[in-house]
Model the fold of this input.
Amino acid sequence: MVRKCNQKDFEEIFEIINDAAQAYKGVIPQDCWREPYMDMEDLWREIGKGVKFWGYEEGGRLLGVMGIQDVQDVTLIRHAYVRTQNRKQGIGGQLLSFLRTQTKRPILIGTWKDAVWAIKFYEKHGFKLVSRKQKDELLRKYWSISERQIETSVVLSEGKKH
Ligand SMILES: CC(C)(COP(=O)(O)OP(=O)(O)OC[C@H]1O[C@@H](n2cnc3c(N)ncnc32)[C@H](O)[C@@H]1OP(=O)(O)O)[C@@H](O)C(=O)NCCC(=O)NCCS
Done:
């Protein structure tokens, strides 16, 4: 079941993000990796900036989470994470398909250039990598991330004009 997350889910969201983000360890550039990958303060800050989390729940437990954030004239999909044990069962796909129904704006997704599985996952759902020049512009316009993260990230779009 896909449902909206609330304040009570905070610790479980935190746990899922940091479990799932282990996939990045040794894959993304070493200077971009942190342990924990996202600390509680960062997570609060993201929620404060308008990231709304939705979760996939089964048996009273969240197995995956995905955030959605309206920024200027677009909607960003942020922080897509499925527990390591529960991958490749369609959970991420269900969350993504659901979130797509929640906005009429063009959707943009940013991820690490080296997270090839995530790029494949989004491509499977019809998203396309934008050009290098365009992704730099989009990351600067819609995200608040460091130059280093811009350099090491990619952006996927639905192919609609933004
Ligand atoms: C990306 C992620 C959210 C996808 O969730 P999921 O529930 O595993 O995805 P689904 O089961 O709906 O879809 C599976 C598809 O995703 C892609 N995929 C997922 N894991 C993959 C892997 N390890 N290697 C290659 N492709 C992978 C494939 O296209 C796969 O389709 P297939 O089974 O037909 O090959 C999940 O893998 C995850 O949490 N990864 C770690 C964190 C991350 O990379 N998040 C993205 C941040 S933007």
Q: What stands out?
A: The helical segments are 10-20, 40-48, 91-100, 116-124, 132-142, 147-151. The chain is about 35% helix and 25% strand. The mean pLDDT is 96. The longest helix spans residues 10-20.
